[in-house]
Amino acid sequence: MRYPQGGGLTADRQEFREQLRLEAAERFDRGESSTVIAKDLRVTVRSVQRWRRIWAGGGSRALRSSGPASLPRLNDEQFARLERELAKGPAAHGWEDQRWTLNRVKTVIGRRFHLTYTIQGVRKLLLRNGWSCQVPARRAMDRDDDAVAGWVKEVWPCAEGSRRPVEPGSSSRTKPASP
Question: pTM, whole model, 2 decimals?
């Protein structure tokens, strides 16, 4: 799995990829061709060529992993504070209904921590920390199921109308009036 839990490569996979690059660097020293290295390491020739350019500019050290591309901007303590804020509910933050949307969570993060996240960034942050998307059942508290069933049986068929024409039609699509 490439991105487990939406969080990038695992540490084992990062280590494996770094070992491939370093093995390729040893073979660059020996003067082997990119196609041979690619075939032996089971990677693309283009990747080996890219690694060779990096190696030529900075040696084996340049091929070492530089760690994750970006670290989460909210640390564990800040995310715990965010969870406490979300537990208060949207009404405590000025929204009328009781639904948390990604846009609202983004606004709370901006207000409380002075950080800007994209909508997708908020989604990934929540997924990474075990939150899931839930859609509320939209049913009114004062709904009368008997009245709804009666309306569907009596009123809706009249409003919908008949789908078949009343008079006989023609099987010809180009001349509807033909016998």
Answer: 0.43
